[in-house]
User: Fold these one by one.
Assistant:
Number 1:
Amino acid sequence: CGNVSAVYTQTITIVDTTAPTWTTVAGALDVTLECSDAAGLAAAQLLFPVATDNCDSDVTGIVKVTGVFVPGATCPEAGTYTNTWTVTDNCGNVSAVYTQTITIVDTTPPTFTAPADITLCRDITGAYDRNVTNTGDVTNEADNCDTSLDAGFTDSDADMGTVDAVGVITRTWTLTDDCGNVTSH
């Protein structure tokens, strides 16, 4: 008879309430570097995590917050950088924070050149033929990270001779950097 019913409407609502997730495993970008490894630090700062999303196929809008260097309490050349990332999909869902920790260490001892060995003679009265307190000084102090080495020297003298015999003075020069790495000669 040609009678038409009223229109029945079905509404299918598509929503995206799922935040993007990180496919880069937590901790995968963490690195430990020697404090003098500038190239390694630069490379570590360029690392980036990868994300995926259930609906948005292009989750490349990752936002990085670069952390500042936090020096160690007892070793200012060592410390950490903590970088974080988040990513937002097209529907405004924000991922969890991805964290990268770059740990800076100083395990390399300083270097220096000790004075050359010298021979001192004593006479029968015990007097040396030259000033034993001026037997030379160290040179070429260097460290991969610490720039204030000259304050870190200690030396020890041990007079093992007797008045009527040849004496031996042993002088040990020890250089310690800010991170506790020690070199002795």
Number 2:
Amino acid sequence: MRGRAAATFAASLTLQDITKVYDGKSALDGFGMTVAAGEIICLLGPSGCGKTTLLRIISGIERPTTG
């Protein structure tokens, strides 16, 4: 019998006006998005645009400057 390969998540995620500043330079500036329960998203962008910073804030590793 085969098991399921996918994970399920029951929670949604809403980010509003997220800003993160490092040494006077903005890594994120007023970022916002909503991810519905069960929705899958992908973050795309060039190096240095804030993808990792956003993921670190969502996971609780970093605290946003505002938002």
Number 3:
Amino acid sequence: MRKFVTYKRVSSQEQGKSGLGLEAQERDIQLFLENYADAPFEVVGEFVEVHSGADNDRPQLTAAIALAKKENAVLVVSKLDRLSRRVSHLSALMEERGLDFKVAQMPHADRFQLHIYAALAEQERQFISQRTKSALAAAKARGVRLGPTKNTVAAMVKARQEQAKRDAQKVAGVVLPLKAAGSSLRHICEVLNASGARTSRGGNFHPSLVSRMVKTLEAA
């Protein structure tokens, strides 16, 4: 039986961006496992981390790699930059003995192709960064005030909190009884997904989201 370890990562800045959230990564990984993994297969570990991809020191990634090597499992990520945004770090991972990993969005890519893709992506980020700095410097020279005001930030935070409350209330009738009965977060997710319920973004429920919903409902 083929074994897999999944790893998902978001930075605090990326959590609200389309395509970079945990739900999107979970969907990509599940599509990979269902369509490209040898059957039967087993997911022996799932790791989630809120950390910058520019930092190589990530405890959950280290733990995921260690488990994958111990279990002779394949480490699966949604996108290549979920592992790292640095080509040097990705190269080191590619050369690490006993570690095999797959990228869900590029299921047929070999290590050479992944290395080329990472190099091109890093070059593009550097160009975008330089272009952004130039644009901001030009705007500042014209007297443009940069960045959101405190009131704008506070309003955005409040809006997100209110949306989270509304989302949690929609499934409270399922989540709270199951939690009170001692069900695991994963089991609660399975019940919600099997019922046809969807998140506010139209995706499946995952344990970290349900955990936040439980905290929101308990605090209400």
Number 4:
Amino acid sequence: LGYQAATEPIWDLEKSECILVLGTNVTEEQNVAAVPIKRAVQNGSNLIVIDPREVELTRYASIWLRPKPGTDAIVVAGLLRVIVDEVLEDEQFLKDNCENLDSLKKSLWRFDLNKVEDATGVSKDDIRNAARMFAGNGAASIIYALDTVSRAQYKDCASAVVNLALITGNMGK
């Protein structure tokens, strides 16, 4: 969330039912974090990798989304749009913990899946499947480093990641 540190202990990743890895080759950059991710997958957790590069974790992924470089935030916005459109959000968590939710939802209207597919090169079916997988599980985790986006895009991409965790109720699970 803007710091080079985790918000939870890395070993808690093993308890995640779904893990989303965004723009990072975690097995090379932080190989200790890769261990609980691999263990979680071996124990039945779903793994979604969003990265244009083929990294080691893509071999473990349930879904690998390969966006055009620099379009990671648009893919995450597409995931958010599906979650809102299909009413997959955690309504009680949002009611208890979120302000200006209508503003967030209105901001997603510009991320029509046809436009997202055109901009990112990721099929709308794959985006839908990834969104359903992430929102449809219990506790989920997000690992991101934003290796594949420019510094100018860091803020937008980090905000999209936080909104994804928030809307699915995965803040503090």
